[in-house]
């Protein structure tokens, strides 16, 4: 039986559907792909970017599990969007696809979801991100944003917060919970005994308190407690050298205290092929590590490599979770 993976088209004014259409042809036989999109968006972009791509349509739950691309038509939305002109309407169309795919996954119709980018600003209504939306929809309290590169992985202790607020929100208890969660999740994804490194908050991981007390007062006690529980974790390590050490093979996973500390090195090293993976959901969710790119939307120049990597990663993680569950 083929793995069934849902794909959301993202903001119709951005590059999401373009990179999906460019990435999917070489993977058609690898899974049963279900694209959540309205035809007003899909048909013009199909004609522009991939007119020879074979596809089928099913408006309801997909029963036929054969390989290939199926379109879950989200219905009439008022016409095609203008390239690069994201607005509240395009944001709501992207949210509709995300919501429908998430509910399909929770109902057991999908093994995974791969999400194309949308604009938080255009969704509105206090929308914090696709990760947070899917976690709330699933009723999950414990979840984390992670990024998989070809050589190592990063898990963020905080995500979309101002830096000052992110640091204030950290505590030893939250780090103990996060380290335990990361260890358990990577084992569930069939990565046995992951080597976890905790990145320091301050320069030189505080230099023994000289450059700040958070590393000694928050991070080190949490690492010690988790080590005593048998988890392969170390730190806090100076962040300026840690990520290259992980890239070189010293560690499997780095826990970063705030968004940019973790994302800058992984995007630099992976060069557009890192994959956003949500830990803690009852299904696999991946996404490319880029945004809507409104500035180049419709020009046909968007590279599909990030989306292709996210699609392949979804297949791999589904297989890994199934392997973990097998006796």
If you had to describe this structure to a student in words, what would you say it looks like?
- There is one protein chain.
- The protein is of the alpha/beta class.
- It folds into 2 domains: 1-138 and 286-321, 3-Layer(aba) Sandwich (Isopropylmalate Dehydrogenase); 141-280, Isopropylmalate Dehydrogenase, CATH 3.40.718.
- Helix content is 40%, strand content 17%.
- The chain has helices spanning 16-23, 39-49, 88-106, 120-123, 130-138, 163-168, 172-188, 214-228, 239-247, 259-270, 305-325, and strands at 4-8, 32-37, 56-57, 68-73, 112-115, 144-148, 153-156, 196-199, 233-237, 253-256, 275-279, 284-288.
- Strand 11 (275-279) and strand 12 (284-288) form a beta hairpin.
- Helix 1 (16-23) crosses helix 2 (39-49).
- The radius of gyration is 20 Å and the shape is globular.
- It starts with a strand and ends with a helix.
Write the layout of secondary structure elements.
Blueprint: E1 4-8, H1 16-23, E2 32-37, H2 39-49, E3 56-57, E4 68-73, H3 88-106, E5 112-115, H4 120-123, H5 130-138, E6 144-148, E7 153-156, H6 163-168, H7 172-188, E8 196-199, H8 214-228, E9 233-237, H9 239-247, E10 253-256, H10 259-270, E11 275-279, E12 284-288, H11 305-325
Parallel strand pairs: 1-2, 1-5, 2-4, 3-4, 5-12, 7-10, 8-9, 8-10
Antiparallel strand pairs: 6-7, 6-11, 11-12
* Strand-residue proportion: 15-25%
Strand order within the widest beta sheet: 3-4-2-1-5-12-11-6-7-10-8-9
CATH H-level homologous superfamily name of the largest domain: Isopropylmalate Dehydrogenase
**SSE string, helices as H and strands as E:** EHEHEEHEHHEEHHEHEHEHEEH
| Uncertain runs | none
When the domains are counted, the total is 2
Describe the oligomeric state of these chains in a short phrase. single chain
Helix/strand class: alpha/beta
- The counted number of beta strands is 12
The helix tally amounts to 11
Briefly note the CATH topology name of the largest domain: Isopropylmalate Dehydrogenase
Main sheet: strands, sense, barrel:
12 strands, mixed
What is the annotated CATH architecture of the largest domain? Answer: 3-Layer(aba) Sandwich
Estimated radius of gyration: 20 Å
At the first level of CATH, what is the class of the largest domain? Alpha Beta
How far apart the termini lie comes to: 19 Å
Global morphology: globular
Helix share, percent: 40-55%
**Average of pLDDT:** 92
